[in-house]
TrEMBL record:
Protein name (record): S-formylglutathione hydrolase
PANTHER family found in the cross-reference section: S-FORMYLGLUTATHIONE HYDROLASE (PTHR10061)
EC number annotated for this UniProt entry: 3.1.2.12
A GO CC term assigned to this protein in UniProt: cytosol
The organism of origin for this protein: Kluyveromyces dobzhanskii CBS 2104
């Protein structure tokens, strides 16, 4: 099997599997955490497939941050979905990182795009990795009991919130639902996004628009009247400079997404996993409905 199991940890009623595999998208070994809920261990092979939720983490994260601090596992057991926690970038020998040595670009900051610019294009193909290779690799081992293709939803935080919105809109028939915690909604216009897009994608803003959620809402039709759920805290230090959640609501005006993007601004919450874990139950319920679990 392509996947190597490095540890199995009992959490709530299920198990968190720490996995790694050689990735053809990134040309590196990639770590993944996969939470299999209690239903996985109680159901027969022939039972209905367990749906899954893809969680994309933010800048500086590995698969551990959300696994340890977001408290998805109790929600996954409550409703019966698996949770996939991929890494945020390629890592290891030969992987280029930020020449400035900052944490907002390079290793830990792959931005879920396919880089076209040297030297990043050699390894930074995180779009293909999370949306194409990852479900395939997981299905080879767990596909007889877990659905990684047809009954899957997507969420994420900050850079990963951008990745969730972008991946959902670019694959509009793929994910059953999308939510985001403190996402970068319009990366082409804010410093984190501009640095990443210039570094990974070059100067051509037409390529940036192919990933930018605030551009995608103008070109992708919301055929089913689906809603996107977003939470952001008023005490988030990145709110005014990098997140600017109103920009996606403004962009959606006059499109099929108008009124369909629910942005909840929560008093006093910051950018941390204290904030994320506080709203995970609401996001879990939202996804569980769309995954047919309630
Ligand atoms: N390490 C930095 C802070 C970086 C930070 O806040 N990262 C966020 C995501 S930001 C947008 O993508 C995060 O999730 N950090 C991991 C965590 O466990 O909180 C610093 O030192 O200032």
């Amino acid at each position: 099997m392509a996947l190597k199991l490095t540890s199995t940890i009992a959490v709530c009623g299920g198990k968190l599997l720490k996995l790694s595999h050689p990735s053809s998208s990134t040309g590196t070994n990639m770590d993944i955490n996969l939470y299999l809920p209690k239903q996985y261990y109680n159901s027969a092979e022939s039972a209905k497939l367990i749906p899954s939720l893809l969680y994309l983490s933010g800048l500086t994260c590995s698969p551990q941050n959300a696994s340890e601090k977001a408290f998805w596992q109790i929600q996954a057991d409550k409703y019966g979905f698996a949770v996939i926690f991929p890494d945020t970038s390629p890592r290891g020998e030969g992987v280029a990182t930020d020449p400035e040595g900052s944490w907002d670009f390079g290793i830990g900051a792959g931005f879920y795009v396919n880089a076209t610019e040297q030297p990043y294009s050699a390894h930074y193909n995180m779009y293909d990795y999370v949306h194409k290779e990852l479900p395939q690799v997981l299905a080879e081992e767990f596909g007889s009991k877990v659905d990684f293709f047809d009954n899957i939803s997507i969420t994420g935080h900050s850079m990963g919130g951008f990745g969730a919105l972008s991946g959902y809109l670019k694959n509009i028939n793929r994910y059953k639902s999308c939510s985001a915690f403190a996402p970068i909604v319009n990366p082409s216009t804010v410093p984190w996004g501009q640095k990443a897009f210039k570094g990974y994608l070059g100067e051509d803003k037409r390529i940036w628009a192919e990933y930018d959620p605030s551009d995608l809402v103008k070109t992708v039709t919301n055929v089913n009247g689906d809603k996107i759920l977003i939470h952001v805290g008023t005490s988030d230090p990145f709110l005014e400079k990098h997140l600017k959640p109103h920009l996606i609501e403004d962009a959606a005006k006059g499109t099929s997404w108008e009124g369909k993007i629910e942005v909840n601004i929560e008093d006093g919450f910051d950018h941390s996993y204290y904030f994320i874990s506080s709203f995970v139950p609401q996001h879990a319920e939202f996804h569980a409905k769309h995954l047919g679990l309630i």
